UniProtKB/TrEMBL annotation:
The keyword Iron applies. SUPFAM superfamilies: Fumarate reductase respiratory complex transmembrane subunits (SSF81343). It comes from Microcella frigidaquae. It is a multi-pass membrane protein. It is found in: Cell inner membrane. NCBIfam families: succ_dehyd_anc. This is Succinate dehydrogenase hydrophobic membrane anchor subunit. One of its GO terms (biological process) is cytochrome complex assembly.
Length: 151
């Protein structure tokens, strides 16, 4: 019995058949880098929200409004949002590539992943950078109690 199932050496000239950007390699690298950054950002987020000051007892609308009025926290949360969504989408893309055999279904799922991620990134970023807990001209009965002094 002969074994015709031999593989070329990884660095042989015949092993590389495609030219251009190796998206799988960059996706793999992104997952590792974003995973490390996400661990740091998530633990920082949890520490500030749950441990500093009064802890979990202080989390209310005023706390969130105060945080989202500070540019540092806006960018911190935006980085967390973008890294987490793209990290999750890349993981789902990998799962789709591994388990969906039909190329048409795979393409539909990839488009759905990209579309849903784009919508969530746009909406989440808009919320982070346009949030105003006390909108000018709002009915005082409908806004938070601490906005009475501002309106």
């Amino acid at each position: 019995m002969s074994t015709d199932l031999t593989l070329d050496a990884p660095r042989s000239p015949y092993a590389r058949t495609k030219r251009g950007i190796n998206w799988e390699k960059w996706g793999w690298i992104y997952m590792r880098v974003s995973g490390v950054l996400l661990v740091v950002l998530i633990f920082g987020h949890l520490f500030v929200n749950l441990m500093v000051g009064e802890g979990i007892n202080r989390i209310d609308f005023a706390f969130v409004g105060g945080k989202l009025s500070d540019p540092f926290w806006q960018w911190y949360d935006a980085l967390l949002l973008w890294l987490a969504l793209i990290h999750g989408t890349n993981g789902m893309r990998t799962i789709v590539n591994d388990y969906v055999a039909n190329p048409r279904v795979r393409r539909i799922l990839h488009v759905a992943l990209i579309a849903s991620t784009a919508v969530l990134l746009v909406l989440g970023t808009l919320v982070l950078f346009t949030f105003d807990p006390c909108p000018p001209g709002a009915d005082p009965e409908l806004v938070a109690s601490f906005c009475g002094d501002i309106l």
